[in-house]
Amino acid sequence: MRLFRHQLRTEQLLFWRSREAAVFVFLFPLLLFALLTAVYNGTIYGRPAAWALLSGMLAYGAATTAFGGLALILVARRETGILKRIRSTPLPPSTYLVAVLGSTLIVFTFQAIALFALGRLLRNTPFPHHLISVVLLLALGAACFAALGLAITGVIRSIEGSSAIINVIILPMAFLSGSFGPTRHYPEALRAIGAVLPLKYLVDSMNAIYLHGAQVWDRPGSVAVLAAWAVGGAALAIRHFRWEPREG
């Protein structure tokens, strides 16, 4: 436990000292929310547009932080040899990975709080009525995308290509899943693609809870799909995660 606490503290220091990580992982959803609320007016899903956009950005933040941020960090450390050296230290590899995952979840927690605070400041959006359901759903979503983030590191072969691959996955997924607004006017083919993506189920469940007062247990189908994606991602990560550099 002492090693875990020490490594968790180290991971937090490393993250907040990295300007690139702070901007791409932490600040980008906040900036995007501010921009979208300046463009969208009227109502979405029967609620003020800012409410729906906040709901979508919470789900999008889970993807960017737990999936994108985690994958970028681990690929960079793998290709620079840091992960390989970790295995030769007294720190158990499992403890190291749990600390990295824990740090990622802490960053996402801060991000979610910041989104609620920004929404309140800019558009007087309400705080969630069913806070426990929001927390449970976001925790499940973050766990799901963290597992997928670990899995995708087995596909990414270089530091140079990591950002491009992550963005090619996250941005279209967010667009098709409704993070940036309603998808009901999309062509049927695009809606069919969005219907199989994990972010779609996180967005829809967050809309139901935050906008319409549902509880997380009112969405068993979405919870099951997110859990299935999490299990699948974890299985792929166990099989394909590498500690040694892949370049060269």
Query: Main β-sheet, in a few words?
Result: 2 strands, antiparallel
Strand content: under 5%
Number of domain modules: 1
Described by the principal axes of the CA atoms, the overall outline is globular
Strand order of the largest sheet: 1-2
Query: Please, how many helices?
Result: 10
Instruction: Give the ordered list of helices and strands.
Output: HHEEHHHHHHHH
Mean pLDDT: 93
What helical percentage do the residues reach?
over 70%
The low-confidence runs, each spanning 5 or more residues with pLDDT under 50, are none
How many E strands?
2
Please state the structural category. Answer: mainly alpha
Radius of gyration: 18 Å
How far is the first residue's CA from the last residue's CA?
A: 37 Å
Task: Describe this protein's structure.
The structure is a single chain. This protein is mainly α. The chain has one domain. It has 10 helices and 2 strands. The chain has helices spanning 2-17, 19-39, 49-79, 82-86, 93-123, 131-152, 159-177, 188-194, 198-212, 220-240, and strands at residues 43-44, 47-48. It has a two-stranded antiparallel ribbon.
Briefly characterize the structure:
The protein is mainly alpha-helical.
